[in-house]
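Most newcomers find our protein records easier to grasp once they have seen one. Read left to right, the backbone structure tokens trace the chain's path through space. Nothing more is needed to start thinking about how sequence determines fold. An example says more than a description, so a record of this kind follows:
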Amino acid sequence: MNKIILAALLIFISAPAMAGQVFPPQNVDQCQDGDTLTLHKDSVTNDLSVQCVHTDMSLTNPGWISLAGGLTLQWGQSAGCGVQNCGVTYAKPFSKYVIAVLASGNNSGISSTCAATYNTTSLTNFAVALCTVQSFFWFAIGV
């Protein structure tokens, strides 16, 4: 049903204001729930094309989103671990490398500098050194 609506919308958008042609969506039969349909207009011919872009994501805690090209963003909140050095395992392991990991203390009155990450080169986990036993937020970027 959505494919029919999309095709009708493309025909409506392109007629008569645009001289270009509308090409049928590519790979739409392979689209999954949560995928993004992108509309592209060629600047020379004014032709329109639609592609289905699969976005791998989990909007939970912890969560992630993998973007086209392989860049992955991950986040979460740890309830603390009972000691001042906490290990965190990524919900989705990175495949090539980790670019950055950030952590911030969650207790009011405690500076965010009280959460320092280390062991950030692992593709599956990282560690956080805390000034006090507390919960913390974390964010990681990698491929």
User: Anything to note?
Assistant: Residues 2-53 form one domain. Confidence is low (pLDDT under 50) at residues 8-12, 14-19. Residues 35 and 54 are 5 Å apart (CA to CA).
